[in-house]
## 1
Amino acid sequence: MPAVHTVLVVGSGLAGTATAIHLADGGVAVELAELEPAVTTLGSGITLQGNALRELRALGVWESVREKGYSFDSLGLRAPDREGTLLAEIPDARTGGPDLPAALGMPRPDLARILHERAAAAGAKIRFGRTVTALDQDAGGVGVTFSDGTTGRYDLVVGADGIRSSIRGLLGIEAATRATGMGIWRAFGPRPASVTRTDLFYGGPSYIAGYCPTGEDSLYAYVVEDAQDRSGLSREERLATLRELASAYHGPWDDIRATLTDPSRVNYTWFETHLLPAPWHRGRVVLIGDAAHSCPPTLAQGGAQALEDAAVLTELLLAADTLGDGVWTAFTDRRCARAAAVVEASVQLGQWLLDHVQGDVPGLMGRIAALVAQPA
């Protein structure tokens, strides 16, 4: 018998939906509460490294993901010169194993729909348009009050509600995010034939200019600059700013820039990070994914770490007879140090750029690849 019979998962991002799928497959009654009114249709793209693909395969959605996404096995480094000269093509580590691609890009909305459909098919009850406003737990369970006034009681509550987690706040845990000093422009658009993998341009007027194919006909492109207050710009001004920054980069960027015409498909955010000290649970409430740890996208590991949290947590819950110290000790041992290493490495890569220091980037990336190549 699993350690829990009824579970509330708050937040239906990668960590939350993966948790709901695993638990529902294991016979647990799962409710998935999501503040948004429906599966989001917004967003650009996401890069999923091999260890994320390994977890998606375990969730039973790999074939659907492969069909919607764009796989590749190398990373290109290009110069910020007039030709966008290719400096190196580096085989990427297959951290999910030799039978999976090194990386895959796909539209975020497609990934969200695939996971939500899988969760519903597994038997999870997805409740849109509500979240949790109060928690009242005792030794036997957690009483929950929802934003629509309804209540419920569960053996366990999983807070997977993102970087600004309301569950974290209800637990009284202070874990304010920290801006790292970088801001990123992202645009989603058509994929030119010249884009067949992620290429990174270092230098020029920005720290990084890159792109990732997300399907046969789509990609997302990005430019990383010093973090600035860009909130006063109109949508048209945001597009113009991105196009101006991107004008310093050539090669495939010339093809991409010609397609950047829709202001509604451009967004700007700051890189942020936080890491919740162990343990990530308080009684019968546990935080996972961005609610517990977040990192800038310099290693493209955010989604993978969220999926790993869900996999390890649910494995332990389904294998144990009771929800006790053994479960939490094992979860802490398997997840906290590993996630911390990824967060710290992701921040370090950006800090070297901010400080204009040539750090040991290959060594750092190699260490993290070796770490995440081992199942969590």
## 2
Amino acid sequence: MMGHELNLIQKTTLILVCKKPTLCQGKQRLAADIGTEEALTVAQHLLACALEDLSEWPGQKVIAPSHESDCEWASQLLEDEHALIVPQGSGNLGARLNHIDNELRRQGKESLIYIGSDSPTLSFRHLSDAAQRLKTYDTVFSKASDGGVTIMANRTHWPDLSNLPWSTESLEASLAKLCRQSCLSVGYALSGQDVDHSEDLLGVFPELNSDNRPARRALAKHIRTVFKQGDTPHA
């Protein structure tokens, strides 16, 4: 990586928006497919993958837990004393993202990249691509195969995100439309995949199975266990 690219990334804040994995909370669509206990285990593996991304980021790191009561838990997830903990606040996901964004900009942060804990095929390449594109665009997204997004990035305040169709196949299109209506330019980073259903686990398996990062290898191993199909699970 060239010096100016590293400098740009070091000035970009990476935010992990996450929930504390808990039985019967979160990943309900996945739980309907594979059961609540298996869904909890998958959620724990997915969080470990996201933390892997956060750990290797050379810029400022932020963990945004869903509840203020989870701040102590969040503070123990990374071995980085400089990582910030910013609870999400209340409301739907859009309102919570606005809250996080406003708080970080109040602290002087400018270029921000948001990820969740359901996109295990993300890599440093995806994140650095988003950071680079923020030089040109006000907002940058990574499209997910289901019509959502795996990365949201911005260099200025988000518009009001609370009325968007979160968790639907029209999210990305609606998000881009809202930004353009708010006079914000829109760019796209490398696309990715997220995990909401059992078939999504099957979809990400080939890439995870060839990924040498420990959390990805552990998730691939667990997917084999869930589907009991050896090295190459099939639906």
## 3
Amino acid sequence: MSVDFATLLSAAEEAPEDRRGEWLRKIRDAFVTGSANISESEIERFDRLMTQVLDATPLLERVTFAKAVAKSPRLPQRLRKRLLSDNSMVAAPIIEHAHLTDDEIIRIIDINSEAVCLSIARREPLSDHITDLLIGTSHPKVLLALARNIEATLSPSGFEILSDVAVNDVEMDDALSARPDLPPEIARKLTRALEKRTRQRLTAMMERDLSRTRRPFVLR
């Protein structure tokens, strides 16, 4: 594997511009399938080469590349930073899947960007420190993604805030109710909210039928 990857790197470095994309795709696939067997010196060459050529690579190819390498534990740091600084479509799979520390994730969080926060909210796993920061952004899609992500640890205060949303939001109610780590007191709160919504719905149905001088549907 080591010799093959070195050969691919040399071929890509020497290839004319109109054939470089073809070699880069081969390098990408070889890295994804065999990164564990690639030497450190070849990882460095891969890092240097890809960082240099990404600027001249079409957007869709950069997106495809990012999706392919995002989960690799050997994705070089410089290349990872380069992808994170790219177009949001390129950065998204890196934000969502790349091996990042909490400190790195904190630096990525942009409270004004729902898209960035949403990608982070889908990461597996997530610490309660990160989920608290994301909940603080109040982006509706981010809150729902966190509730649905059972690998995201929610703090007691995080559960409380999401359950407040769930009182009037059926999707959030369903997402929280499906979590295996749902605290009993939050489960009781959601049950009371469901009972309240049911009573309100039945009352509305009765008032509707009475306004039409019909026998209420719920009494038939």
## 4
Amino acid sequence: MEQAHYPSLRDQAVVISGGASGIGEALVRNFARQGAKVGFVDIAQAQGEALATALTAEGHTVKFIACDITNTAAYQAAIADLAQLHGDARVLVNNAGHDQRHDWREVTPEYWDDRMAVNLKHFFFAIQAVAPGMKRAGGGSIINFGSISWMILTPGIPVYETAKAAIHGMTRAMARELGCDAIRVNSLVPGAVVTQRQLELWLTPEDLASIEAQQALNGRVMPDDCARMALFLAAEDSRMISGQQFLVDGGWAHT
């Protein structure tokens, strides 16, 4: 099935975190195929380099930088390097995160800080890094990836859920802070997205059947489904939308 094309994304500089696999890989591929200049970071160097090489061979403009997003100075430096290469970012997709399972009774202050760094802190400092360039360019779009996990009371990941719930608050706050410079800030909230990692670590056939039973729509939410919503939020088609959260979850019945 042919998908939407967004002319306003052509030649626009896009920065994506966690772009080497899963939802992030789908984001990189979809933005590249819109004609955007895509820069992405990830700690998975081999995967990131392979993806960038493959897309460049297809004729797309893609740059990968191996980077640990929990190292704020290194991440902001990588964003600056991408701006030197592609121009000031007009789109930032804060995607990187990690839903590591944990028992709340065993959480230490050190673990808490580490999980917040992986799932929340880098969103803010990436925004801080790109906002001046977006202002110079006349505006832009920031897309923060959340999660329905805290909405549906998923067990076994309370620190992750806390970080993901906070992302919506950050989105609302920064939409107000940056709106005067024509910078839109929205949250994209995936449901149970079927990635290779989820299949390998968590999703059994029984889990998949249970998920489909809780969705209003038949079928599975795939990484491309999230990427297509991100394209809309990045494009000028959504120019008057900010401070909102958009759920891509198959119509899950939330409490």
